[in-house]
Write a structure and sequence with these properties.
Elements: E1 15-18, H1 34-47, E2 51-55, H2 61-73, E3 78-83, H3 87-97, E4 103-110, H4 113-120, H5 124-141, E5 145-150, H6 157-169, E6 174-179, H7 186-199, E7 207-212, H8 219-228, E8 233-236, H9 250-259, H10 261-264, H11 275-286, H12 307-315, E9 336-337, H13 343-352, H14 359-375, E10 379-380, H15 381-392, E11 400-409, E12 412-421, E13 427-433, H16 437-449, E14 454-462, E15 471-479, E16 482-490, H17 493-511, H18 513-526
This protein binds 3-methyl-2-oxobutanoic acid (KIV) and zinc ion.
Zinc ion (ZN) binds near residues 178, 180, 211, 213 and 242.
């Protein structure tokens, strides 16, 4: 049934706070490097989110650098850094975000007794003191300060209210009340906000925010219930990634608000045509595949299988579709290049896709494009997107697949020989006979890099339809007790696999500098003494 659109008011605008790069990045196996985080943040800005939570700057020098670079390079959204209540955390968060045009510090402490007693091992009084000091300290630096009482949905509400009053008194401008463990139900979550507003009159003067986890599959429903109860910021992540079962999925929240706006009157500033591309980029860079039937961005979200549905949609799209695929940018892949397209055409196509590629990067992109165009008649927007994001993610400390040779057949054991450019510039060689061609190949890569990585997951998908499609491979491996993922794209599935495997090894090493230092000591001790 068509619903009449009402006039929009600023008070009904819901701010979208994206935490893909912070809570999302905390998902097991995800380890994005600085370049990847910068790419994603740039795309989030194109998507039009209001706030980017760029990371947890105290967590590691790598996290700090990435947040700082995003704060300096990404314009439009507020750039936010997360901090516990300790001053060292807040100082790190401020130093990382202070160069942004619109910096924010987000500080948090738990208010549930379970966390206070068992995790923090302190008292409620101490939590109040820490919240007071943290917000005051953060406000000393920055006018935009967010405070979150962690695990609030399992906490004593009156105590949480007291802590919120303190945070507001000290100058917090956004109060975010998280369902940290995904325990709440929509009615309960909405009632909690109504009760908090009654107990803490100061909440009327700040932005109230929701942050929901999906342990019971209710993150989007709970977020929506909170918004209906008056919250005007939703914390969410692309593809719903995040701790454990993940956060509320940004694309679901945004499209729920957009599709049913006439009914609830709420709206966001998100440029929804960028949703599909943002989802693909995050999936590609994190190695977290999107399930085919996922709402909004799943491969089948706009597909119709049953004959009766197909018949209906052919006659009139709205018979079985409540959204138009073009509103999330699913059918805007008009770019097609061929093997005669030149550098100029490539640059224009990339610009249309939102990539500004010049100089050496353009030369490299052109070289990769030519390799593909020689094998594939038409290079589409999806191909270019996959290739360029693959190429842009080369970072310091990377291993390069120089050459490989794999022999396999029904009458012999698979054998692989590889040559790898090591981060220091020298060549590493490896060969191996394995149980299958992939086993032989990856074992040879272990030998060439001098690492004992163990394969955990291996996925191959095609970027587009057709037998000449580009292969996109995702690898999850374990190295030195660390899980790390990597992706690779190529017209050749084995080459894509090798790129993905080497990238995953590099990510594991980047994530574990201590283990890497030990590796070098062990290698040095194997060297013959003069
Ligand atoms: O889930 C949670 O409570 C969080 C806080 C840091 C906001 O992620
Ligand atoms: Zn969270």
């Amino acid at each position: 049934m068509a619903e009449a659109q009402k006039e929009r008011s600023e008070g009904d605008r819901v701010r979208i706070f994206d935490t893909t790069l912070r809570d999302g990045e905390q998902s097991p196996g995800i380890s994005l490097n600085k370049q990847e985080k910068l790419e994603i943040a740039g795309q989030l800005a194109r998507l039009g989110v209001d706030v980017i939570e760029a990371g947890f700057p105290i967590a590691s020098p790598g996290d700090f650098d990435a947040v700082q670079e995003i704060a300096r390079e990404v314009h439009g959204p507020v750039i936010c850094g997360l901090a516990r209540t300790g001053f060292a955390d807040i100082d790190a968060a401020w130093n990382a975000v202070k160069d942004s045009e619109r910096p924010r510090i987000h500080t948090f402490i738990s208010t549930s007794d379970i966390h206070i007693e068992h995790q923090l091992q302190t008292t409620r009084e101490d939590v109040k003191g820490q919240a007071r000091a943290a917000v005051a300290h953060a406000r000393g630096y920055c006018e935009d300060v967010e405070f979150s009482p962690m695990d609030a949905t399992r906490a004593d509400l009156e105590f949480t209210a007291e802590v919120l009053q303190i945070a507001i008194d000290e100058g917090a401008t956004t109060i975010n009340v998280p369902d940290t463990v995904g325990y709440s139900m929509p009615d309960e979550y909405a009632d909690m906000f109504r009760e908090l507003v009654r107990l803490v009159p100061g909440l009327a003067g700040v932005t109230l925010s929701v942050h929901c986890h999906d342990d019971l599959g209710l993150a989007v429903a709970n977020s929506f219930a909170g918004v209906r109860a008056g919250c005007r910021q939703v914390e969410c992540a692309i593809n719903g990634i995040g701790e454990r079962a993940g956060n509320a999925s940004l694309e679901e929240v945004v499209m729920l608000l957009r599709t049913r706006e006439a009914s609830h009157g709420l709206w966001t500033g998100v440029n929804t045509v960028e949703l599909a591309r943002t989802s693909r980029m995050v999936s590609r860079m994190t190695g977290y595949q999107v399930q085919p039937n996922k709402a909004i961005v799943g491969r089948n979200a706009f597909a119709h299988e049953a004959g009766i549905h197909q018949d209906g949609v052919l006659k009139e799209r709205t018979t079985y579709e409540i959204m138009d695929a073009t509103t999330i940018g699913l059918e805007s892949n008009s770019i097609v290049l061929g093997k005669h397209s030149g550098r100029h055409a490539l640059r224009n196509a990339l610009e249309e896709l939102g990539f500004t590629v010049e100089g050496a990067a353009l030369n490299m992109a052109f070289k990769r494009f030519k390799e593909v165009a020689d094998r594939k008649k038409k290079v589409t927007a999806l191909d270019l997107e996959a290739l360029v994001s693959d190429e842009m993610r080369q970072s310091d400390g990377a291993f390069g697949l120089e050459s490989f040779d794999i022999e396999a057949g029904s009458d012999r054991s698979p054998f692989a020989r590889v040559s790898v450019r090591l981060p220091g510039g020298e060549l590493g060689e490896g060969s191996f006979t394995g149980d299958g061609p992939v086993d032989a190949f990856f074992s040879a890569l272990n030998a060439a890099t001098g690492r004992e990585a163990r394969l955990k997951e291996y996925h191959v998908s095609a970027v587009t339809a057709g037998r000449d499609a580009l292969a996109e491979v995702t690898v999850l491996l374990e190295l030195g007790g660390r899980l790390a993922q990597g992706q690779g794209v190529s017209p050749d599935t084995m080459e894509a696999s090798g790129r993905a495997y080497l990238r995953a090894i590099a990510n594991a090493i980047a994530d574990s500098p201590v283990a890497e230092a030990e590796h070098h000591v062990q290698e040095a001790s194997k060297a013959p003494t003069p």
